[in-house]
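Work Package 3 (structural annotation) set out to generate three-dimensional models for the target panel prioritized at the project kickoff. During this period the team completed the workflow that converts sequence records into discrete structure tokens, so that structures can be stored uniformly alongside our sequence database. As a representative example, we reproduce one entry of 77 residues exactly as it appears in the project archive.
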Amino acid sequence: MDTNDDIDAAGLLCPLPVLKLRKKMKSLKKGHLIKIFSDDPTAEIDIPHFCIENNHKIIKKIEEKNKVGITFFIQKC
């Protein structure tokens, strides 16, 4: 999936993955896509919550099988 920006938040604990996502989203134009990977277990709750509160759309969620973590593809709305 073609993205406008990627965030590798591996090793970062709450709230850092969401804070990094928030900062990147501010610089993106409406409709742009961002990919974020996090291995923080709370990211599965925190990132969707952030998207709902800010009216962004989760396009795809991939739970990594060969490594612990989750990848979200999010569209800025």
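The mean pLDDT is 94.
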